[in-house]
Structures are given as structure tokens and as C-alpha cells.
Structures
1.
Amino acid sequence: MMKNLKRIAALLLALSMVFALTACGGSTPASSASAASAEEAAPAEEAAPAEEAAPAEEAAPAGDVDINAALAGKTIGYVTINSASPWSGVIDSTLGELIPAAGATYRNLDAQTDIAKIAEYCQQMIDAGVDALIIFGGDPAANVDIVKSADEAGIPVFMAALDVAEDGRQYVKACVGPDQEQMCYDIGKYILDENGADAGLKVVQISGVPFLDDYIQREAGFRRAMEEGNYELLEPDYAYSSRTDAKSFMENHIQAEGDAINVVMGFDDDLTMGAVAAIEEAGLTDKIKVYSLTGQNDAIQAVADGKMELTVMNRADNIAKELCVAMAEWFTNGSTEYYHYTELTYINKDNVQDYIGKGEF
């Protein structure tokens, strides 16, 4: 982890001029290019809760990769399953700052949750002859053919936040982000440790898009942890990108099950906060414990206010920064490690004051 922090610090130093002008990690996604335009061109420990956590430290500049020299003059293509949600939008907007700042051209296409368009847009990037292709989301198995096509065209591929299926990894240079399944397994274990594995609690799950792999992996990891206790795990409710729908789902659960609900697990803070609002309006804040991930500002404040037990900060801007590091290493050395894991920070009542207002959005 320290290695990644040091490399990120080196990236920040190399791009200090752009950060003097533009705040990094804003919540507004960069404008997605059209298809035609593409053709034109824990506390303190990763993925494991502990007693306390400290704010992310400022690492000293280190590393021998010159980001500007490695990326200058190149065209970087980015295809995303969705830039509309705040978290995924930060990856897009941060890449949209970092890549041009390094003297490269940034081209991006947004599939808007249409998995079929991932393949279509990636092929457009390949046909346009980009120097590197970054892919976020889609079907890991379907992405195998995509990354193979890119490799055959001599285009290095980098996966953002989500991996390709195993038989496609030979065609990918690096996968950058957290281990999604392990992250939610660890949150599940945290819940079991906090409440007792034999407590027999009833758990509501508020999830996002049922066919997107990040949510599939998150649910799988959490379910695996719950199997180690005797909790009753209700089927996930899918709110897609709507906090309003998440609130409605929670209201329905409260009407149907009321005081029988003990725990809510939200797989994205923006949706979880809809459930928090429903719980508060029903006067059940002291009876239902809420756990989530992303680390956005209103969720951090909810932890401080006693409305949530935990949020795990999974910073999207760190993924964008480390993608630039991985690409620079590849262009400079012809190799880079496959998994570049980014930092997770557990935020609970013990350390929340250190993080208030320090989320990405």
C-alpha cells in the first residue's frame, strides 16, 4: 500500500500545476464524447477494520516514472459503463484532468448502463488507434473478446475498478482499484464482530444495478461473510442510481417488517442515504444499524450524527491517479504489476471527526 501511496504522490507532484488550477475529484463527470468524436481521434488498514484509523498521510515524492514524459503526445481512450453516479463520475472527471495535464489527449465514451455499448465503444477506440484503452465496467466475460481485440491491435488495456474474467487477463496490463468482493466480505465480518455472529439479526440490502459487476461482486462478498453467522439476509433491493427509490424500498421494509429489521447494508453511500432518511423519518435510528461504502460527505456526517455505523472510503480519484501510474510504468518499462490495489479507509464513530468534509463529494 505504501508503494501505491508513494507512486500517487509522485503523480501529484508531476501534475501539481493542474491541481493549482482545478480541484481534484470533483463530483461532476467530464462530458462524455460522442461515438463520432472517438473515431476522430479500516481504520488505518486496507480492507480490514481495526480499532482506529488516521487520515490518509501525505507521502513523500518517490518513484522513477515520469508521468508527463510517459504519456505526453499519446491518446488515451476511456470507456465506462456509467458516469452518471457520483462515484464513477469522479473517475471520469479526474482522468479528464490528469491525462491532458500530462500532455496527452483524453477521449471518453459513456455506455449509460447499456452493457452492449461497452463492446461497441471499445471497438471504436480500437479503430481510432488510441495508444491505451481504459475500461470501467461491463460484463467481465464479454470483456474478454474486447481486451483480446485491443491486444491484437497492439493497444495496452487497463481495467478501472473491475477486473476482466480470468481468461482475459493475459491481454490486460493492469487492473486498478479495490478488491470489490473482499471489501464487502470484510464489511460483513465487521458487522458480525460488532454485533455477534450468533445474534440472528435481520439484514436489509440496498444495492444498485443488478447486472453490473461491481454490485454483483459486492453482494457476493457480503453474502459470503453473512454465511459465517446466523443472520437472516433479505434479498437485495435494486435502486439503480436513485436515492429516492432506495428510500422507497426502505419505507416498504419498515412497513412490512418494522422493528424486526436490525441491520441495513448499503452497497453505495448515495443509495444508502435514502435508506437512512426513511429510517430517521420512521423514528428507528436507534434501532437499525446502517453500514455502507464509498465515503461521501453526507454519509460521513451521518456516521458523526449516529445515523450510520460505518462507511468505507473507496476513493475514485485514487483509482484515476493510479491508472496514470500504471500506464506510465507500462510505457516507460514495458511492464507493470497486474493488480494495483487502492486504499480503503474505515470510518466509524471512533475516527469520524478526522474525515468530516473530506469525502470526494
2.
Amino acid sequence: MSKNLTKRSEDYSKWYNELVVKADLAENSAVRGCMVIKPYGYAIWEKMQAELDRKFKETGHQNAYFPLFVPKSLFEAEEKNAEGFAKECAVVTHYRLKTDPEDASKLIVDPKAKLEEELIVRPTSEAIIWSTYKGWIQSYRDLPLLINQWANVVRWEMRTRLFLRTAEFLWQEGHTAHATRQEAIAETEQMNNVYADFVENFMAIPVIKGRKTESERFAGAEDTYCIEALMQDGKALQAGTSHFLGQNFAKAFDVKFTSKEGKLDYVWATSWGVSTRLMGALIMTHSDDNGLVLPPNLAPIQVVIVPIYKGEEQLDQISIVANELVTDLRSKGISVKFDNRDTFRPGAKFAQYELQGVPLRIAIGPKDLEKGTVELARRDTLTKQFVAKDDVVDTIESLLKEIQESLHQKATEYRDDHITEVDTFDEFKEVLENKGGFISAHWDGTVETEQKIKELTKATIRCIPFDAKEEEGKCVYSDKPSKIRVLFAKAY
């Protein structure tokens, strides 16, 4: 497994693309814009999925599954949602192929097999889910309805990049129905907080919680909450969103309930989701010029043991110690691999696990056996130490916690160093061009100013932070009065 990665300082985009492929996370497929997630990459996604699924169930949600196809008439029912996703839709028009009469080796669409109604391949599932909820909800006793699904969705992106933007991707989408506006808003806030807790504490990525501006909201939502992260190249990445949908979808699909007082009313809705884009966030937040750096919580292999030996006899002696360590570490819930392949030299194995971001590496040779020690190497700092064999398990337990915390601290320091307050548009452009990161600036609250800044600089308002303090000021672009600073950045 060759490293030879482009340096981040030379070409960050190229470094990212090379790392995804060389670390065996994913690759482009035969379908334009779609990816194959390879076993090592999928193992990381499974860890994310398991932890999120646990959090969803702890907050009362259940998993279900809904169809991939959405009849066009249902998709059109909520106008803003349909309009927002229309340009990214893949559409099924026929249901059969037949042999080409002019060339028997080829298949063509059978013109007699045209669908009566075209089907949209889901870009998001609100339409099919809310048409289903109409049959599930009649009374206040049916509420709240708290459903999540793990699924794939298709958005026909023109410019794609592995994990960050692909025509098909994996995600979870929560869709909930409530009796009151207040309940639905509380759900929207709760799930945004669940995402923030997961990304901060499980992925070791610091995030800023806030709400989107009107033009950046989810299509069909009354309000969108989000978590925003900052990558090492100074660009922002939207790591998760949670939407308060009001009664828009309930009205579009006529989903009503009878209240305790016997009154008929529309339910209140939310939807929320994160996707395999989080894999991109993970890579770009922690990794370095040597390859992946994985937080222990997400590493498919937390510890790898590499024997250094000459001949079968030495390998057998080392294997006794290594297998004891494997048993002891696994009993503590630590994932460990003993790599005793004889087809690769130790140096090649070291390079592979460094590239793949395994947090800790143990090397054991004949001299270590004599001394009763092992060599323990950290991936995050690339430092080594010799540890007595009897102390290895305890040392590893404490180091894994230390690495998790250290990665979060390092990313937080970088993020905090790259939040810059500006008061003039010249300062704004200078920081954006030369420093990057989040720019904290006053905004007059108008879509026109937001669009003009985007046109001139390619920077967008990432969020209006929940903890933003009110202060009198002037809009960085229009000089009109403003009472709050928002966060701008270039973004993925």
C-alpha cells in the first residue's frame, strides 16, 4: 500500500482525493458520480451508524424503511420542497427493456412499457413518508410519531467528490410528527444537539450550533438548525441539519389529528439527517501528510500488533505474547489485530497502518521478548515508547482516551484560531483570501446582501450562531444597522 501522498500545503483537494483512495476507504464506480465504499471505509461508517442509532433509540425513535421511488404527484405536493430538489432528481419513465430488433446484442427501452406516472428516485423522503403518515395518524394518541430510516438517496450532482458530494449517498433521515408547534421545535433542537454531541465527543470534531438564514434553509422548512465544522484548509462543512417543518407537509398531504378536546388540526413536523459526508469531515479534520488520523472511537482497528522476526521459531515465540495481548485487549472492548502475514515486511505493514490511521501500533521482536517489553507507537503524534508487557493493556486504555481528547483539543484550537471578527468589507475579503476560516461579521438581514457577498467572494452565511451576542453594528457590506454577528465562510 503505497503512501506517496500529495502534501496538504501543495494541493489540499488532491491530497484528500488520494487519501480516500490509498487508505482503502472508497473509490469511484462505473456509475458517473457514484462511489464504492470499501470495507475499511464502511467499517468506519458502521461505527458512526451504530452510535447514532443508539442515540436515536435513547431519545424514543424507531427505525422504519420507506420506498426508494416517489410518484411524481406526491413529490409535487409540497411546492417548495419539490422546487428545491427538482434540478437534482433522477426520474424513472419506463419499467422494461427489450432486445434491439436491429442488434440482438443490445437492449433498448420498450416504448410500450412507459409508466402511467413517472417515479422520482428519492432525493429526500418527506413526500413518500408524509403520504404514509396520513394513514398512521388519526388521533392525539398516535402522537408523537418518531421515525428514523437508514437509506440511500440520489441527488444528481454535476461536480462530485468522494464522500463530500456524490450522486448517491448513504444517510439517515428522521421524520417526526407532533401535536403542537412547541413539541416540534423542541424535537428539532434536541436532534441538533444529538448531532453536536456525537460529532464533538465521538468524532472529536468541534462544531458551532446555529440556524440557517432563510435562503440557506431546507426546502419546505420554516426553520433549519445546523452544526458547522471547520476543515484544515479553512473551509466550512455542514455536518448535520435539523428542520422545523411547521405544518407545511401536513397540509400538503392532509395529515390531521383529533386533539384531546375533539378539535381537528394538522400535525407539526420535523426532519433531520446526517450522511456519509461525515466521513469527509473526519478525514479533513484530523488527517495529515502521512495519511488518515482516526479518533479511537471510530477506528475499525484501535491497536495493531506487528511481529518482527527471522524464521518460524521466533514468530512462534512472539505469537504467544501477541495472542495473550489480543485476548487481554479484547476483554477490555478494544479492537485489535495481530498482523502475522508473512507476505509483507514489517516496514510495509507500518506504512499501511500509518496510512489507515490505526491509533496505536505495537511492535514485538526477539529483544522485546528478552526484556519483557513492547514498542508502542502513537499515530497522532508519531511518537514511540517502550512499555513493560505487564503494563501494556493499562497503558493502551489510557492512551486511547488521551488520543481521543487530544484530537478534539487540536481541532478546537485550530477552529478557534480561525474565527476572525471583521468590521469592513475590505477586512472581510483580506481574511477570506489569506487566512480563511469563519468570519464573524455584521449582516443587515437581507437576502440581497447575502447574495451579493456570495457573488463577490463565494462566501456564504454558514449559520447564525445560537450563542451569538447581540451588539449594535453596521453590516459589513451595506453599512445598514445590524444587531448580531453571523458566521461567513467558503464551504464544501
3.
Amino acid sequence: MDRTASDLVRFVQDRAGGDPVRVGLILGSGLGHLAEAVDGIPIGYEQLPGFPQAGVSGHSPRLTVGQIGGVRVAVLGGRAHYYERGDAAAMRLPLEVVKGLGAESLIVTNAAGSLDPAMPTGSVMAIRDHINFSGMNPLIGEPSEARFVPMTDAYDAGLRAALLTAAQSTGTPCHEGVYAWYSGPSFETPAEIRAIRTLGADAVGMSTVPEIILARFLGLRAAALSAITNMAAGLSDESLGHEHTKRMAPLGAAKIETILRAALPGI
């Protein structure tokens, strides 16, 4: 952890207390209100030099440190996407700070399009694996040998099992599948969706994969949940767009909050 991250960790601890965080959370488009479930201290990204200013509506650019269900968490209410400035490593400093606050695990959430008719809008999917369809990587330019991160177990089986068990115990339907990262910001074409589907993807989105790679680079266990906000291009007559994503995200967000509240005490 470099000096910038160390300074920010001390700043956050001065504001929110020095007790170690157990779990970090990243909230996706339309899911930022989940930070309100945290009993703790919100710190705007503008107070944290080097943190990205979330340039997409539907995000809440605040780091909130506190308790959910008795578990101390650090919640990143907004993310920077690759498509905003062409920087796949935009979330590296925030994740270094979360790690520096003591987190051992990271749970990422996102809004995604479904490639599976059995997983309609409003569903939730636990990500089992991903396809980096964009080809970009947040570790390009990293000089250390640590850049060669093994990704066989990118999505921790134990964390995913805890999320799925929590979903079952609360009666919350939760699918499981493979997420494909497409760079955006334009939505995919029907041909691209057919290609990704042939490759084995169950859902598609414009985030998460860089953060999972960074999490593994930093030694964090990782898991991810997708809120399905639409059927992917060519699979329905939905009108795709960011406003549609924001309108549909709360359908899955409520389910994700239920799952997280039940799962966190056991993580």
C-alpha cells in the first residue's frame, strides 16, 4: 500500500473509527441507496483525493464505513467504469483503501442484462465466473511480478455459497451463472449478444470484472451479485438505455439487500 492509500486509510479511520472492516462492498448502477442500510459514517469521494468522481447517474459517490447486521463494512456507493475515461484501474485506489481498512473479502454488485429467458428482469444472479470480453485489464502497466494473478478461483466458492445459502434461507430466488464484461458505454448489438451467449455467458454488463481482478491482486476474497435490469439486445422488445437500467435496478436491489443482510454475519 503506497503513501496515498495509507494517508487515506488514516483519514477514514479518524472519521469512522479504527476498528477493522470485515467486508468491502461495491454498489452498482441504481443500487447506491443500499449504502443507507449501513449504520455508520459516509465520506464523500470529493474528500478522498484520488478517488474517482462517479460520472454516471444512479451511483452515490460516498465511502460509508459502519455496521450492517453487526458486521463492520466499507461500502463504496459508486464506481468509475472503464468507459468513462478508458482506465480499467480506476477503482484500484478505493480498493487499496478498503483493504487497508482491514477487509478480507469483497462483494461487488452490478446491474446486468440477462442472456437467459429463465432469468428475467428483476432476477438476481450470483456470479460463478466471468468472460473478459473487452480484453482490457486493470493490471496493465503494473511493474511487479504480482501482476500475474491466477484467476481460476476469482469468485470465491465459500463466499458464493454463503450468498446462495442466505438467498435460500430468506426465500429469495437467486440464479448462478457466468458474467461477460463488455466495455460500453454503448449497449451490445444482437450479434454480440449471440456471440457472448455462444461463449457461455448468462449475463452481460459494463463493470465488475476489473474490480474482481484488482481484488484478487490485492489478496481479497471476492464474490459478486448481479441485479438483472433487462433482457440483452435481441432477446426482448425492451427499450435499452441507462434510464431503463435505473428504473429496473430497484427490483433486484431489494433482493440483494435481503441476501446481504442474511449472509454478512457468516462471512
